[in-house]
Amino acid sequence: MLRAKQTRYPVFFLTCGTDITGQVPDVRTVSLETAVPFSRMEQLQGIVTNSLPLFTKPKWIRHIRNDQLHLWTWGNHNTGHDKVQFQKMHGVSGVISDNVGDLTKVDKKLRPRDAGASMS
Q1: Of the four, 13, 38, 50, 100, which is 20 to 30 A from 29 by CA?
Q2: 8: buried, middle or exposed (CB in 10 Å: 19+, 13-18, 0-12)?
Q3: Residues 6+ apart with CB under 8 A from 36
Q4: CB environment 58-67: b (16+ within 10 A), e (fewer)
Q5: Cβ atoms within 10 A of the Cβ of 44, count?
Q6: pLDDT, average across residues 110-114
Q7: Which one, of 39, 90, 96, 98, lies nearest residue 69 by Cα?
């Protein structure tokens, strides 16, 4: 039903992946165990989860990818280069971070802007 309503853009299921507050009433949003089957059932393109549970149980990354779902992560751990590299190495599709500039500098992938380039 969700995907049928949105055919133009990919639809992902947003979850915490773990109960970080103790006050979330919808079990699908606090557990990868329920988020994955729900996403498959609704034929969504993937899951966006807090990265924290993936560090303690990296097997979830392979499990989600084996189910043909994309996996994106968010959270405080996504500001550390080593944590981002861990996710990349295990097959996470995308990492949401507030620290993109610093992360790319560490990888030496950030190229300085051409001094003569305009901001158009």
Answers
A1: 100
A2: exposed
A3: 47, 63, 64, 67, 69
A4: bebbeebbee
A5: 19
A6: 54
A7: 39
Confidence of residue 93 (pLDDT cuts 50, 70, 90): very high
Rg of the Cα trace of the chain? 17
Q: DSSP assignment of 52-105, as one string?
A: HHHHH-THHHHHHHHTT-EEEEESGGGGSHHHHHHHHHHT-SEE--S-HHHHHH
Q: Judging by DSSP bridges, how do beta strands 94-95 and 70-74 pair with one another?
A: parallel
For 32-50, write each residue's pLDDT tens digit.
Answer: 999 999 999 999 999 999 9
In angstroms, the Cα distances linking 20 to 32, 36, 86 are 13, 18, 21
Q: 38 near 11, Cβ under 8 Å?
A: no
Residue-averaged pLDDT of the chain: 83
Q: How many CB atoms neighbour CB 51 within 10 A?
A: 24
